[in-house]
Amino acid sequence: MEAEGLDWLLVPLHQLVSWGAAGAMVFGGVVPYIPQYRDIRRTQNAEGFSAYVCLVLLVANILRILFWFGRRFESPLLWQSVVMILTMLLMLKLCTEVRVAGELGVKRRFFAAADNKDEEIRAPPRRSYLDFDPHYFWHWSSFADYVQCVLAFTGIAGYITYLSIDSALFVETLGFLAVLTEAMLGVPQLYRNHRHQSTEGMSIKMVLMWTSGDTFKTVYFLLNGAPLQFSVCGLLQVLVDLAILAQAYVFARHPPKPAPHAVHPASTKAL
C-alpha cells in the first residue's frame, strides 16, 4: 500500500530522470568542444586541435543516421548525431578561418622582415577538395569546400543505403562502421600528440569531458539495451581517451627539448 501511495512521486521522478538522461545524451557530446572552441577563438591558434577529429565525427554520425533508417534505435541517439554534425561544422569553420588568417599573417611578417616593399603580398594558394590532391585532403582553404565534401559523402552513402536497405547484413555492417569510426574519434589527436611529443594547444578539459561523456554514454547504452555496436564503440572510446590523458601526463613530466630554430609547420599540418 505504501509503495502504491508513492507512485504519484516515483512515476514523474522516473520520467524526469529519463528526460534528463536523454537530454544529456543529445547535448552532452558537444560539451567537450566548448572549451576548445573558446580557446581557439581567444588565441586565434588552432594548432593544438586536429581537424581530423571533425572528419571522424562527421563520417561516424552521418553513417549512424543512415543506420537508423535500417534499424531504428532510440531517438536521443539520432538527435545526438544531428547536433554533433552541426557542432563539427562550426568547429571546422572556426579552424579554417584561423588557419587561413595565420598563413596570410606569416607571409606578411616575412615580407615585413625582408623589407621588400615592392613585392606584392599574395594570399596563400587556394586549395579545394575538387583538386583531388591527397596531400591536402581535409586541409582546404574554404569552409565551403568542407560543406560540399560532406554533402557529397552524404549523398553517395545515402544512395547506397537506399539501394541496400533490405539487406540485414548491409544494415548491420553499416552500424558497425558507424560506431567503429566514432570509436576512432581520439586517434587523430593521439597521433598528433605522439608525432609532436607534446599536448601543447590541446584542451585538457576537452579530453576530461570526452572521458566522462564516453563513460556516461557507454553506461547509457548498456542500461537501455542499445545495439551491441554502440556498447563496443563506447568502450573503445574510453580506452582511447585514457591513452590521451596518459600522454598529457607523460609529456608534462618529460617535456621535449625546444628546437634551436623553431618554425611552426603545425599551422599547415596539425589541421
From TrEMBL:
Q: Does the keyword Membrane apply?
A: yes
Keyword terms of this UniProt record: Membrane, Repeat, Transmembrane, Transmembrane helix
Where does the sequence pass through the membrane? 16-37, 49-71, 77-95, 143-162, 229-252
Q: Which GO terms describe its biological process?
A: phospholipid translocation; retrograde transport, endosome to Golgi
The record's SMART domains line, in alphabetical order, gives: CTNS
Q: Which organism is it from?
A: Equus asinus (Donkey)
Its lineage opens with: Eukaryota, Metazoa, Chordata, Craniata, Vertebrata
Q: Where in the cell is it found?
A: Membrane
Q: What is any one of the record's Gene Ontology cellular component terms? A: membrane
Q: List the Gene3D superfamilies.
A: 1.20.1280.290
The gene designation is SLC66A2
- Full protein name: Solute carrier family 66 member 2
Family annotation (Pfam families): PQ-loop
Question: Which InterPro entries would you find in this protein's record?
Answer: PQ-loop_rpt, SLC66/Scramblase_ANY1
Look up the domain of life of the source: Eukaryota
In the bilayer, the protein is annotated as:
Multi-pass membrane protein
